[in-house]
Specification:
Number of strands: 19
Subcellular location: Nucleus
Structural class: alpha+beta
CATH class of the largest domain: Mainly Beta
Helix content: 25-40%
GO molecular function: histone methyltransferase activity; protein-arginine N-methyltransferase activity
Number of helices: 17
InterPro entries: Arg_MeTrfase (IPR025799), Methyltransf_25 (IPR041698), MOB_kinase_act_fam (IPR005301), MOB_kinase_act_sf (IPR036703), PRMT_dom (IPR055135), SAM-dependent_MTases_sf (IPR029063)
Binding site for Zn(2+): 89, 94
Keywords: Metal-binding, Methyltransferase, Nucleus, S-adenosyl-L-methionine, Transferase, Zinc
Shape: globular
CATH topology of the largest domain: Hnrnp arginine n-methyltransferase1
Bound molecules: S-adenosylmethionine
Length: 497
């Protein structure tokens, strides 16, 4: 594109991309910082989180390992650019991948193009993006790729929108757009679909209950690839409406056609809260809305909106019940490494970082033998009746020691129920259940608790959306240990962001 004249088709394409992304973002996506050597930049950013970057900081803290997030962020910028120009870049408009008349790019790969081949630009870039994505997901190239894939599944994103918002272009994407764009790439959906506990539970709840779905109008809130819509159509629904704001719905439209559901499933691109529905009422709402700590990401708000606006009085919601569970764990070694570390860093105190580390919940897999107390269901949510304001709550809990041990943290997980089913379908995200991408949420206490069998820990857990970013959660645990040997009380504040 470099040598083309203003006003040509290719310049038009570039102008379009710049308008969609903002000039500054486009530059950030394709230009190295001044004086940087490309290889050094990639090597450095592949190994160490960049501390100015909110997501890298968070991921490093959450997982306690080095990560490739800046590379992934860079990839996502390029992805956004690709999606922005994809529609204009038809085979007729750009029949060959080239940079001005002087340079043509030829594609070769070991599978389908053993010889360097001329390809239309769109196809070339598509293959290139897939190849980059494969590299990022290759554990031998980026050993920490699971961190990206499981994390990005749910949260991605708003951090990159900081960069986007720094641009001055009025037509820049907003953080809201970017949130949805985090769901645009198929990799995120691959991760969710491959979570078999999750996807098989929805499949069983829908397809083993054809008597509930037969001839019903079904709304799939946040349909993604359309998987739940296709389950519902296969279960005999009269018609399914799938709604998603993300560009993944363009793929879902092709998927629905490919599987012969074109006349049964209608997919609408847009925000659930803003789209116009072809039906005034629906009989069933299906949605996979759960985030870390169940409520992180706030997508349940959207389901409640759809329920209140479209669901008939006797209508069903799949799933219909969620419970949140708390327990205590022994986690001395990891806490020492991640929290106590800041007390003495080469002889210096870094208390402010210790405080920050304590206040951020860690999303991680907890081994079941780390549990040292009983567990307690502290919150039950009936999706059919809960109101948005109930999602900010304070709930009491009581747990007791299982043996003589030390306790370093609370963990929270959630369980999901489809109780209208002929045989109720249920799955747990707890440490004793099969792995899910939600893992568990660990909340460290400031002090280590010495507990004995039957020692009582009583308290309350408060959870509410963060004031400045409602997709984040403010969590407070207020507890009191009445032990044989120890009495202790504490208030711990956390933000899941
Ligand atoms: C967790 S994914 C689930 C995708 C799919 N249902 C599945 O089970 O694989 C949630 C989807 O909801 C979409 N979404 C979230 N909030 C939305 C809203 N307010 N309006 C439309 N789509 C939304 C996201 O773009 C994302 O594709």
């Amino acid at each position: 594109m470099l040598n083309d004249n203003r006003g040509s088709k290719k310049m038009g394409l570039r102008d379009f991309a710049e308008e969609a992304l903002g000039k500054e973002s486009l530059k950030y996506a394709v230009v190295l910082p001044e004086g940087e050597d490309l290889k050094e930049w990639i090597a450095y950013h592949s190994l160490e989180p960049e501390y100015d970057n909110k997501m890298c900081k968070m991921i490093a803290k959450l997982y306690g390992i080095k990560n490739n997030f800046v590379v992934v962020d860079f990839y996502n910028h390029i992805s956004v650019l690709f999606y922005a120009v994809e529609h204009q870049c038809t085979e007729e408009a750009c029949p060959v991948m080239s940079a001005s008349l002087r340079f043509q790019y030829l594609w070769t790969d070991s599978k389908n193009h053993p010889k360097p081949t001329k390809l239309p630009a769109r196809k070339y870039i598509g293959l290139l993006m897939n190849w980059i994505s494969e590299q990022i997901n290759d554990i031998y190239v980026f050993p920490t790729h699971q961190v990206f894939s499981s994390y990005s599944n749910r949260l991605f994103i708003e951090m990159s929108s900081d960069n986007m918002q720094a641009t001055t272009n009025k037509k820049q994407m907003s953080s809201k757009d970017y949130y949805f764009d985090s769901y645009a790439h198929f990799g995120i959906h691959e991760e969710m679909l491959k979570d078999q506990v999750r996807t098989n539970s929805y499949r069983d709840a829908i397809m083993k209950n054809k008597h509930l779905f037969k001839d019903k109008i079904v709304l799939d809130v946040g349909c993604g690839t359309g998987i739940l819509s296709m389950f519902a159509a296969s279960a005999g629904a009269k018609h399914v409406i799938g709604v998603d704001m993300s560009n993944i719905i363009d793929k879902a439209k092709l998927i629905v056609q490919e599987n012969g559901f074109g006349d049964k499933i209608t997919l609408l691109k847009g925000k659930m809260e803003e789209i116009e529905m072809p039906y005034k009422q629906v009989d069933i709402i299906i949605s996979e809305w759960m985030g870390y700590f169940l409520l992180y990401e706030s997508m349940l708000d959207t389901v409640l909106y759809a329920r209140d606006k479209y669901l008939t009085e006797e209508g069903l919601v799949f799933p219909d019940k969620a419970t949140m569970v708390i327990a205590g764990i022994e986690d001395g070694q990891y806490k020492e490494k991640k929290i106590a570390f800041w007390e003495n860093v080469y002889g210096f105190k870094m208390t402010c970082i210790k405080e920050a580390a304590l206040s951020e919940p860690l999303v991680d897999v907890v081994e079941s033998d780390a549990i040292v107390t009983s567990s307690c269901v502290f919150r039950e949510i009936d999706i059919k009746t809960v109101r948005k304001e109930d999602l900010a709550f304070t709930a009491p809990f009581k747990i007791s020691g299982l043996q003589k041990d030390y306790m370093h943290a609370f963990i929270v997980w959630f369980d999901i129920w489809f109780s209208y089913c002929h045989k109720p379908v249920y799955f747990s995200t707890g440490p004793k259940a099969e792995y899910t991408h939600w893992k568990q949420t660990v909340l460290y206490t400031r002090d280590t608790l010495t507990i004995s069998k039957n020692d009582q820990i009583e308290g309350t857990l408060t959870c509410k959306p963060n004031n400045s970013n409602p997709r984040d959660l403010d969590i407070t645990i207020d507890y009191k240990l009445e032990g044989k040997d120890t009495k202790h009380s504490e208030t711990c504040n956390y933000t899941l962001c």
